[in-house]
Write a structure and sequence with these properties.
Length: about 140
């Protein structure tokens, strides 16, 4: 319960999944309801043929594009909350590593113990006619 009131535990992801489910159901029922209504109106002759065809095209758009767009919107919100969760876990990891009691001088000593990169004595830079090292260019001139 303490994580809930301090906002360490996020409840948005399950909430967004629930909202997505209800939105998916609403879009699908509305699309099918509009298709049935336009079919009944076409059959009874109260709805012109051209308008009924337009309604059926709208139904196809609602069922396919509408549900797909709704899914993308909900996934975007979930993605934002997952980014927050990942950043929070990284923050906890950094705080854990910094709380181990290691001071700056101890870190410097550890870095000094690493082997230093040395140049091989057999590799010499290319020298020009006047014994002056010249840097390589992009064209190799």
């Amino acid at each position: 319960m303490a994580g809930y009131f301090s906002f360490h535990k996020m409840i948005a992801t399950p909430f967004i999944k629930t909202v997505y489910f209800f939105g998916f159901i609403a879009l699908t029922v509305a699309g099918i309801g509009l298709a049935v209504w336009s079919g009944v109106g076409l059959r009874s002759g109260t709805l012109p043929t051209r308008m009924a065809v337009n309604y059926i095209a709208i139904v196809a758009g609602i069922l396919i594009v509408g549900n797909l767009a709704w899914r993308v919107i909900c996934e975007t919100w979930i993605l934002l909350f997952n980014i927050h969760a990942l950043l929070a876990s990284i923050d906890r990891g950094v705080k854990h590593n910094s709380s181990l009691g290691e001071t700056d001088t101890q870190r410097e000593v550890k870095h000094e113990k690493l082997p230093r990169e040395t140049k091989s004595p057999g590799i010499q830079p290319e020298k020009s006619r006047y014994d002056v090292a010249r840097p390589a260019s992009v064209l190799g001139l």
